[in-house]
């Protein structure tokens, strides 16, 4: 069976310590919305440095997240959970072994502090101990608190007008690692379109606030070219498209190519038949 992939490598490039990886340079990954944990494995094996399990928009409950996190870890991958909101999903995701959390629609410094309180252990936060996968099911508790606080990545998303207005205060909250732009929702909240002058200025405001506060910047990018553009601007967490878009895009291109090749073959066959017919008549 031939492979559809013609690149030079499909080996995983794990970044189990996402905080350290972000400090070292850009990290490239994607969002996962498809329910199968096999997709998580495929993405990790294909080279996704981080896989964002989208519990905000996809049908992923805590049980499903456990399967996805385990699948990622089984092949050396890194899974982060985008939670639906500030709440129980934060600590549960980390207890499952996620390398970090992404929190949507953070609009105030008070909300950012709520996030930190939920995911950091005392004294910075108020997270409780859980005997889950992250702590070896209670068998590796020694030093776990220190290691978890050192390695867990905390990402807050600015994707509303109110969040934009408060972005400097949000970025200043201790315990936040990444301030991420939600480009489509931000454009919608501002009453404009992605790529407009107003939208571009808003994105720049988030970049400036995050970098001034010593935080990394995250971006959800349409494609690799856009990711490269934002990386040059200083973004570190670069999330390209989604797993469903990869599947749909690849399938559409393959079927279009197949249809085009078949049409060309049919034209060539028809031309050859016409030529043979003229030869017969002559």
Automatic annotation (TrEMBL):
Q: What is this protein called?
A: 4-hydroxy-2-oxovalerate aldolase
Q: Which residues form the HpcH/HpaI aldolase/citrate lyase domain?
A: 29-242
- Please state the span of the N-terminal signal peptide per the UniProt entry: none
Cellular component annotations (GO), alphabetically ordered: cytoplasm
Q: What is an example of a GO molecular function annotated in this UniProt entry?
A: metal ion binding
Name the UniProt key words of this record, in alphabetical order: Lyase, Metal-binding
Pfam families with a match to the protein in the record: HpcH_HpaI
Question: In which domain of life is the source organism classified?
Answer: Bacteria
Family per record? Belongs to the HpcH/HpaI aldolase family.
Q: Does the keyword Signal apply?
A: no
């Amino acid at each position: 069976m031939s492979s559809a992939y013609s690149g030079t490598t499909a080996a995983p490039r794990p970044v189990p310590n996402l905080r350290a990886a972000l400090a070292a340079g850009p990290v490239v990954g994607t969002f996962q919305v498809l329910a199968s944990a096999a997709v998580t494995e495929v993405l990790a094996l294909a080279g996704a440095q981080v896989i964002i399990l989208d519990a905000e928009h996809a049908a992923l409950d805590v049980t499903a997240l456990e399967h996805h996190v385990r699948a990622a870890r089984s092949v050396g991958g890194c899974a982060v959970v985008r939670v639906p909101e500030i709440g129980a999903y934060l600590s549960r995701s980390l207890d499952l072994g996620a390398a970090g959390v992404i929190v949507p629609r953070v609009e105030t410094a008070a909300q950012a502090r709520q996030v930190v309180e939920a995911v950091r252990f005392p004294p910075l936060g108020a997270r409780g101990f859980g005997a889950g996968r992250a702590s070896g099911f209670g068998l590796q508790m020694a030093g776990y608190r220190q290691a978890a606080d050192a390695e867990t990545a905390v990402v807050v998303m600015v994707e509303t007008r109110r969040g934009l207005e408060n972005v400097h205060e949000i970025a200043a909250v201790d315990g936040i690692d990444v301030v991420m732009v939600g480009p489509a929702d931000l454009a919608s909240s501002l009453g404009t379109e992605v790529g407009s002058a107003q939208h571009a200025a808003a994105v720049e405001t988030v970049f400036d606030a995050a970098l001034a506060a010593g935080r990394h910047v995250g971006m959800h990018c349409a494609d690799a070219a856009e990711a490269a553009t934002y990386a040059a601007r200083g973004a570190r967490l670069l999330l390209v498209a989604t797993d469903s878009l990869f599947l749909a895009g690849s399938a559409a291109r393959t079927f279009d190519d197949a249809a085009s090749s078949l049409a060309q073959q049919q034209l060539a066959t028809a031309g050859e038949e016409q030529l043979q017919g003229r030869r017969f008549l002559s």
